[in-house]
Prior knowledge:
By secondary structure, this protein is mainly α. The protein has helices spanning 11-21, 23-34, 39-46, 50-78, 80-100, 104-132, 138-167, 180-186, 189-198, 206-211, 215-226, 228-240, 267-281, 284-297, 302-330, 332-356, 369-388, 390-400, 407-435, 437-459, and strands at residues 358-359, 365-366.
Amino acid sequence: MLEIQREGANMVLISAIVAVATIGGLLFGYDSGAVNGTQPGLKLAFGLSEGGLGFTVGSLLIGCFIGAFFAGTLADQMGRRNVMRIAAVLFLIGALIQGITPDHTFFVMARIAGGMAVGAASVLSPAYIAEVAPANIRGRMTTVQQIMIITGLTLAFLVNYALAAAAGDSTGAFWGGIQAWRWMYLMQAVPAAIFLAALFFIPESPRYLIGKGRHDEALTVLQRLFGPTEATAKLAEIRASFSEDHKPRLADVLAPAGTKSFLGMRPIVWVGIMLAVFQQLVGINVIFYYGATLWQLAGFTESDSLLINIVSGAVSIAACFVTIAVIDKVGRKPLLLIGSAGMAVSLFVMVFVFNQGGLDAAGNLVLSASLGTVAVVAANLYVIFFNVSWGPVMWVMLAEMFPNQIRGSALAVAGFFQWFANYLIAQSFPLMAAGIGLAASYSFYAVCAVISFFLVQRFIVETKGKELEEMVG
């Protein structure tokens, strides 16, 4: 197989493509994290119950699993870049409407539209990067997506904290008499506009172009990426990986007649679904979406809770840089195993702490100062283990583990399940915390982390250093 070495690649162009594509990750993170500090404002503005709040927060995720599903299939029809442009427009419109509408229905509709953009960016940005990056640095390049997701989350936490502090609290009036919590959404319009403009300056994925039979255009892009000699050989190699009798389609995820399958689908697609779902079942988005609420339940003030979120975001970014340093050396599977084990231990520590706390008159958990410190340390260790492993590595593997012929369709299916699981976790946490308590809720996430260790050990095949044309399934 052709090996394209880093020194033969146009790293300036590849880096520019990665920088642009991962703005989608930044917006993905910001949109996911902005709601963290807006919940008091949402409840006050729209008169929401706990169930209503959970639905409003989770409505983003309804859009996410719709966007992830259709983005994968649309990307095979329209191109990766064009679908990301549509996502950028949805990011922009969703941010503006969420920031100004007084109507709860319109707010939820805008949140779903923003969620469709998040879902599309979540699957297409890493896939696009994987399709242009050399195999020997593909893991590092794709991991930048996770750094940008966490950067977006941290940026949202910082903006939330600054706006709440300037206005007195998140429901106080700020610029133009608009409440601070609404500005937390409006601020997203700036990076959304930048993302939309920047997408007009990067090329289309050569693998998409070849899949559509546009070989001359693909050769031009490959020459820009790798030079004329490597481009010609690579063009032939990619062409050989596509079916001659039809263009990529959703039905390609089904196992061909006479081959191994489970419920009619290719085994590799089920492995992708397993990775996508368990990334959510370990409970990471409880920290992302409900971090401020979680720490207030544990006895911290709103201001302290927002600061804890910022610390968690900074720790997450640092952890992702560790992943960049090692993912193309130690591989994907070892990182997933380490992450599963570390998350399980840190989650069980949090369960122990929450079991030691008492309840105040309102039924909220109260922790001593020492137990509160242990909870914060354990939570940040959990975040570190997640962001060294399952956070970035799941997206890396989904972007590279599928054969070219089925990549868009398999991403549609895995992305749908990933965001549907995300929705279930986000929707259920407020009810679980109120009903069975934090300790029981976190016990569920801890058990899922344990299960994920054994699933990775049994089903994951290492993809480190392999060309995308070597992927089988």
